[in-house]
Q: What sequence folds into this?
């Protein structure tokens, strides 16, 4: 591997993301010997000594991984700087500390700035990094930026303009943590490494594709943020659209960052743009009511902390996305995501078209179509649904399932995704980060929908029970096309 020499500055180092994901991920990389020369400066508001900070890093690793080999050596690479994001003096101090650590560890002026903070600080920090000289380095400089990238296309443009004053597009690593997931990365391999899928991967053989990303949890303590966001912005604009792009893109001519990302952009450019009244034919929104989860009664969304009693915010979205290009014309990509659903699961079901004539028709049962199921989380794997002869008896067909389970990684919320993304960033590989063009196109698509939803109050909220798979209208969306949601539980 090339240059893993880096000074990593984490802004928001006392926050949830840093503690739950980033420190454990760095520790794993360290344990695997993937960090060559490195140091970390934790930056946050709270006054802490470096020793207190190192102890919090240690706690975070122990809590997440329960390990402690070489932990003291690991945390000795961590430093802390109390910081006010709006104050130039703060950045001067940080610059001096960075220079000193750079010299001490011989980090060759390579810097990664990781913004694990509330999004309103992204732009101002990027501007200060430049104006206060932190980006004047002889090595590389990279900015890692968390979601959400703006609230809509307009605000995303403003943010992007601020960032681009300090970093070029190739230096910006926009995190979509779904792109760190093993099975999301596997989509392209399944597609482009198999002779039995690649030739069938088009509108001649695929009838529809279904993406479900369901959560059991409600909004928890995130009510204040969620009220300004909703499921469309929080899940569809980024994670779901990224999965659509990976499923739909043309084979890239090479696996380079530019080639892969430009194929994804072409998918976004082919999206059928729906507007105004038409969106009601394509998209359905929902908000959870009270219900039973694990035999416990849970409250409706509107009764959650920091949520408006008459909130119009959607906690569920289902939609039909059409990609109007030669490969996909006529094939619906159905998507759904929501909170307080039956199960926590992210799955993709690719439904193949029926065979031309069915010899094995049973009066009481039709043949099942072939399905390719990609299990993204919590299980990771692939299941292929085929029809085969039922053992014994007549020539009856029955469904058989060929399954591959990626058993290496069981636990949900493991830091593996972030570990891969951090490592990619250190290697300078931006393939699994979103390019500005992807962000812009998917905001443009989503903005049309939120515009209509914000203008019209949903009269039927709450319209699905906690513990269900969403409102009835989400089922009807497929029924009117002659399809149904394949069960994901
Ligand atoms: P958090 O509220 O837990 O942490 C915020 C951090 O910012 C703290 O370290 C705090 O000290 C620091 N901070 C706040 N105001 C400051 C100021 N004025 N000056 C200096 N420091 C200040 O937030 P989080 O959950 O860690 O999320 C951070 C980012 O990551 C957000 O953009 C969020 O959307 C994104 N994100 C978080 C998660 C997650 O699992 N927590 C997942 C995906 C994306």
A:
């Amino acid at each position: 591997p090339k240059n893993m020499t880096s000074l990593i500055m984490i802004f928001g180092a006392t926050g949830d993301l840093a503690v739950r994901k980033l420190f454990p991920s760095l520790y794993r990389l360290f344990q695997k010997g993937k960090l060559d020369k490195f140091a970390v400066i934790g930056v946050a508001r709270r006054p802490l000594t470096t020793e207190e900070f190192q102890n919090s890093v240690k706690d975070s690793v122990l809590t997440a991984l329960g390990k402690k080999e070489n932990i003291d050596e690991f945390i000795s690479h961590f430093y802390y700087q109390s910081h006010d994001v709006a104050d130039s003096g703060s950045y001067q101090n940080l610059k001096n500390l960075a220079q000193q650590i750079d010299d001490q560890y011989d980090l060759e002026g390579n810097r990664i700035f990781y913004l694990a903070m509330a999004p309103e600080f992204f732009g101002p920090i990027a501007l200060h990094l430049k104006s206060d000289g932190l980006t004047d380095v002889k090595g590389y400089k990279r900015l890692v930026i968390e979601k959400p990238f703006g609230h809509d296309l307009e605000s995303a443009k403003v943010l992007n303009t601020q960032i681009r004053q300090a970093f070029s597009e190739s230096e910006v690593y926009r995190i979509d943590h779904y792109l760190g997931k093993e099975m999301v990365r596997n989509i392209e391999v399944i597609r482009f490494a198999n002779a039995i899928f690649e030739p069938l991967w088009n509108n001649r053989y695929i009838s529809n594709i279904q993406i479900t990303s369901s959560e059991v949890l409600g909004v928890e303590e995130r009510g204040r943020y969620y009220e300004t966001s909703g499921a469309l912005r929080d899940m569809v604009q980024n994670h779901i659209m990224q999965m659509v792009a990976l499923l739909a893109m043309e084979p890239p001519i090479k696996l380079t960052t530019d080639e892969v990302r430009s194929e994804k952009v072409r998918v976004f450019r082919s999206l059928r743009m729906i507007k105004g009244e038409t969106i009601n034919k394509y998209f359905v929104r929902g908000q959870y009511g009270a219900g039973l989860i694990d035999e416990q009664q849970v409250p409706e969304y509107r009764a959650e902390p920091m949520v408006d009693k008459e909130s119009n915010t959607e906690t569920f979205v289902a939609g039909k996305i059409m990609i109007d290009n030669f490969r996909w014309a006529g094939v619906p990509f159905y998507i759904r995501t929501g909170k307080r659903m039956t199960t926590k699961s992210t799955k993709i079901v690719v439904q193949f078209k029926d065979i031309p004539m069915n010899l094995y028709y049973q009066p009481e049962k039709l043949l099942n179509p072939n399905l390719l199921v990609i299990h993204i989380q919590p299980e990771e794997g692939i299941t292929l649904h085929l029809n085969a002869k039922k053992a014994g008896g007549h020539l009856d067909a029955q469904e058989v399932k060929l399954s591959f389970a990626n058993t290496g990684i069981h636990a949900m919320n493991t830091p593996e995704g972030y570990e891969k993304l951090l490592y990619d960033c250190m290697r300078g590989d931006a393939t699994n980060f979103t390019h500005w063009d992807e962000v812009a196109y998917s905001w443009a698509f989503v903005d049309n929908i939120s515009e209509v939803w914000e203008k019209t109050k949903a009269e039927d909220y709450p319209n699905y029970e906690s513990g269900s798979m969403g409102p009835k209208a989400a089922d009807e969306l497929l029924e009117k096309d002659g399809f149904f949601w394949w069960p994901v539980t």
Q: What stands out?
A: The pocket of nicotinamide-adenine-dinucleotide is lined by residues 12-18, 44-46, 83-85, 116-119, 146-147, 177 (CB under 6 Å). The longest helix spans residues 436-455. The chain is about 35% helix and 20% strand.
